Amino acid sequence: MSSLYVIRGTLCRQVLPQSRRIFSRSNFSGRPARTGPTSLLPSTPARTRFAPSPTGYVHIGSLRTALFNYLLAKATGGQFLLRLEDTDQKRLVPDAEDKLYEDLKWAGLSWDEGPDVGGPYGPYKQSSRLQTYKEHANQLLENGQAYRCFCTLKELDTMKKLALDESRDPVYNKACSHISAEESAQRAANGEAHCIRFKSDSKAPPVQDLVYGTYKSPVPVDDFIIIKRDEFPTYHFANVVDDHLMKITHVIRGAEWLVSTPRHVALYDAFGWEPPQFAHVGLLVDQNKQKLSKRFGSFNLSSWKEKSILPIALLNYVLLLGWSPSRNSGERSEIMNMNDMIEKFHLRFTKGDVTVNSKNEFFQKAHLRKSLSETGDKETVLASLLPNLSSAIGQYLKIREENEGWGPDGDLGVRIGGLVRPARPTNSESVVSQNYLRALFELDGQSYTTPTEYLKRNVWLVWQIPPNEYEYRLREYEPVLDKLFVQPSVEEPERKLSELTTTLLGYLQGIPETDWTEKNIKSTIGPFIKSIGYYSEEKPFHHWGWKFLRWVVTASAAGPALIPSMVLLGKDETLVRVRQAGLAASDREEEECYYH
Ligand code: GLU
Questions:
Q1: pLDDT of the residue at 470
Q2: Does 154 reside within a domain?
Q3: What does UniProt give as the signal peptide span (predicted)?
Q4: Which residues line ligand 1 at a C-beta cut-off of 6 Å?
Q5: Is the domain of 501 the same as that of 561?
């Protein structure tokens, strides 16, 4: 095989797309169709597909691709298909297929045809379509547009090394293309191992792309493999055959596939088929412009689920990575439910890499606020978020127990006491009341982003406050504590902090347990709280009453609405806190006396 040493064309690139090096020096001629008719929606129903390989789990990049395809089908009254591209048998991840269905359904996507639901063009799993690929490969063999390649892996390897040594692209040298049809058929019949290669005319057909305009590859299409030695098709071959047979009209996929598309177009041409319309959307990259990978904190969908993101918030977030509603689409709100997304969808995408942002928190809050105000949605939201919140609380309770009564210094940033009494349905320390969590949500649900963030913000509405927390938090107010007074219009002109807590305690004790409501608390303590202030040289009266109350009730400087928080905690727990705050105040005052 002396001709083995003349190497042209890529070897064994049947599965992976060509390198980014080739991609980056590719020519893009023509302008992306920004305003042209191609960027509008097609006038006939589009058939689109999401075609993942079960070699990993759904991540935000693939969810975004699936969503774009889904929206195009829905916006045009077409169909959205799910096709499993499981031809790379060596890289299959055992539970990836089941997780895929689960994750996509969780996200709120559904498909009209797919491996699990069937459809008129099935099966929708490539490993069940081997006969179809074989027949199509035979068709190309018979037409002389493909040939069997008997080169051994060792020979191919030698070719590759030599090409690299000579700084040439390691493409196949077409050695077996010279074998006669008869000899080839005979060797195959004798059981000689072989693959089937596409016979390229050494040109690269231009690709029409809705994002990139006309794309011309700088390298010719090589004699790439279409059927591997294991008789499975390559990605390129199966993808083209299936898109054609499944009547796919539009292919929206990641830009990493653009360099492979000339091969696909060459196959469409060889079969005499019309290619679908392509839209290669920019890849998601991190702040350092690196392709998102598993190392990126929130890559896989499961990590977003754990953080309790609402599916619609996640969809809204990924949709706006490299796409935005048209300026003339009326109301241009970025916060969209599924119907809004379908209504506003169009085929104009950002060209080039898309850097991920942290707007997910914004969408989470916006959708939460929306859902919590709509009764129907509220129950769905609570059903999806409460279990995660309970389990996060459970984890903290466990850490607390293991630390002999003291809570973790870690995640929450503070030490925690036991669960507040109304959060314990039984007296058990390890079970948190679901009703209490629902009430906490009623109070502050709109600020929910993740269970940990939510617990951090509301830590003292879940756990009892250790006494030293009061002293610690008081330090923030040190400059005002000796200048406190109560406006003279109120009868008790106490000045000391401990006196303020005593007065507050008196007022609160006077409210009967059964009347412990927002309205009663407000009317009982409101005037007193409003009259608390401190003086300074610039201003004779600075309001300080609400800060005082927040310190008393939650030993914090910020948090959800205060009086509703007192209702949630209940009279007993609130009074415990006022007493605790009073003790901290007296301790401080005694120390002051001692030192002065
Ligand atoms: N199986 C390919 C993937 O996982 C599909 C690419 C395409 O949409 O053509 O990305």
A1: 93
A2: no
A3: none
A4: 51-53, 85, 235, 239, 253, 257
A5: yes
| Residue 14 placed within a domain | no
The pTM score is: 0.77
Looking at the domain assignment, is residue 516 inside a domain? yes
For residue 318, give its domain range: 297-372
Specify whether 274 is located in the same domain as 131: yes
Cβ–Cβ < 8 Å for 576, 495: no
In the chain, the number of structural domains is 4
Rg (CA), the chain: 33
Say how many Å lie between the CA of residue 93 and the centre of ligand 1: 16
Look up tokens 């990126």; give the residue.
Answer: 296
Q: What separation in Å is there between the alpha carbon of 169 and the centre of ligand 1?
A: 24
- Give yes or no: residues 116 and 262 share one domain: yes
149 within a domain of the structure (yes/no): no
Are 545 and 408 within one domain? no
396 plus 351 within the same structural domain: no
User: Do residues 414 and 494 share a domain?
Assistant: no
| 95 and 232 fall within a common domain | yes
Pocket test for ligand 1, best of 57, 104, 257, 268 (most atoms within 8 A of CB): 257
What per-residue confidence (pLDDT) applies to 394? 87
Residues known to be catalytic: 294
Mutate to test the pocket of ligand 1, among 57, 244, 253, 265 (most ligand atoms within 8 A of CB): 253
Kindly report the CATH number assigned to the domain that includes residue 367. 1.10.1160.10
Q: Tell me the three state secondary structure of residue 201.
A: coil
Q: Which atom of ligand 1 is nearest to the CA of 85?
A: 1
Helix extents (H) in 76-199: 96-107, 130-142, 153-165, 181-189
What is the mean pLDDT for each group of 10 consecutive residues in the chain (596 residues)? 32 34 35 45 96 93 97 98 94 93 95 97 97 98 97 93 87 94 96 97 92 93 95 97 98 96 97 98 90 70 86 96 81 85 95 92 88 77 86 85 61 80 80 91 87 91 92 89 80 77 97 96 96 87 94 92 97 97 92 65
Q: How far apart are CA 158 and CA 168, in angstroms?
A: 13
